[in-house]
Design brief:
Layout: H1 4-20, H2 23-27, E1 30-38, E2 44-45, H3 47-60, E3 61-74, E4 77-88, E5 94-106, E6 109-117, H4 119-125
Parallel strand pairs: 1-6
Antiparallel strand pairs: 1-2, 3-4, 4-5, 5-6
């Protein structure tokens, strides 16, 4: 997938799935052996581990939107900067999480995703998890 438009379409679809709560659609974007890494814990997840994380997030955070999207594509993948906004179900607090996601892509599937978040903002997102 070296075509710029196809890479942008994959990036858009990937984040649109989370906005809609379509975790299965997002996981379908991963290669079966993809690795998902988070800077806040330094651990790698499999696509199935990531599915469980995202299902929990979509249950705890409503009105999700990836705002201020900026996508940079290159032959090996894309970088996606955004602010994830949503309302925490537990107490109705509106949250914002600036993030940078770096994805490597092969044959139209994400093979590696590295997520960079502010740990204090992540703590607010997970406050009642």
């Amino acid at each position: 997938m070296s075509d710029d438009a196809a890479m942008r379409a994959l990036a858009k679809h990937f984040f649109d799935c989370v906005e809609k709560g379509d975790v299965d659609g997002l996981v379908a974007c991963y290669a079966p052996d993809a690795k998902i890494w988070h800077n806040t814990d330094g651990l790698e997840q499999s696509p199935e581990d990531n599915r469980r994380t995202l299902q929990g997030m979509t249950q705890r955070l409503v009105d999700r939107v990836y705002d201020e999207r900026r996508v940079y594509v290159y032959p090996e993948g894309f970088t996606h900067q955004h602010v994830l906004r949503g309302t925490r179900v537990h107490d109705g607090v509106r949250l914002a999480l600036p993030a940078c996601i770096v994805c490597r892509v092969k044959d139209g599937k994400v093979t590696r995703l590295d997520e960079y978040f502010d740990s204090a903002a992540v703590a607010e997102f997970r406050k009642f998890a």
